[in-house]
Specification:
Length: 199
């Protein structure tokens, strides 16, 4: 990955999550998602908590108020306030990181990671949960091959230990002809043809 490319990847992933969340229809919050047993609301809560956790790991401050891996499925008031604040906090935290900094603290089991690996790990979380929400609510997929390619590169470096924590399902066979988006989703244990995804 070229120096500084991680900033572009992270910005696009953050925007993807923000845009898909803002596109959730009024009757879409309790719909099922590709995250087994989680509704759209729960995926949003999880994604929000993860962005807060990255920000807190880098600069300190408040992390998520509830366990991102046990989202309640209930958000009082404006459902997007928390996500917007979390994305802003994450972006500010990463803005203070340079390519040549020492390894950056992360909330992942691996701990500190090189800047570009940690930032793209943060982007991976945002982008893939944006996809979860988009396909669950009938929105266009925010993933495309140019975004999926660096995400998959970093996913292959960090995901295996995370499967032991239940963060990802076992990898699926994407097939030899899979594009980068399908390869990424399959590696993360998702079905690229999940019900509702336009082919």
């Amino acid at each position: 990955m070229a120096a500084g490319q991680w900033r572009i990847v992270l910005d696009e992933a953050h925007q993807a999550l923000r845009t898909t969340a803002e596109g959730i229809p009024a009757d879409g919050w309790d719909l099922p998602t590709p995250c087994e047993r989680w509704t759209v609301t729960q995926v949003l809560q999880h994604a929000t908590g993860d962005q807060l956790a990255f920000a807190a790991a880098i600069v300190g401050g408040m992390g998520p108020e509830e366990d991102p891996f046990a989202p309640s499925g209930r958000i009082e008031g404006d459902r997007l306030v928390g996500l917007r604040a979390a994305l802003d906090a994450s972006a500010r935290a990463w803005a203070g990181v340079a390519d040549d900094d020492p390894p950056v603290r992360t909330p992942l089991p691996q701990g500190a990671l090189p800047a570009q690996v940690g930032a793209v790990a943060c982007a991976l979380d945002a982008a893939v949960h944006a996809w979860d929400i988009a396909v669950a609510t009938g929105q266009p997929s925010p993933l495309h091959n140019d975004l999926a390619r660096p995400l998959l590169e970093v996913a292959r470096q960090i995901v295996e230990p995370l499967r032991n924590y239940g963060a990802y399902a076992p990898a699926r066979d994407a097939g030899a002809q899979a594009d980068d988006v399908s390869a990424l989703l399959s590696y993360l244990g998702r079905d690229p043809r999940w019900p509702g995804v336009e082919q």
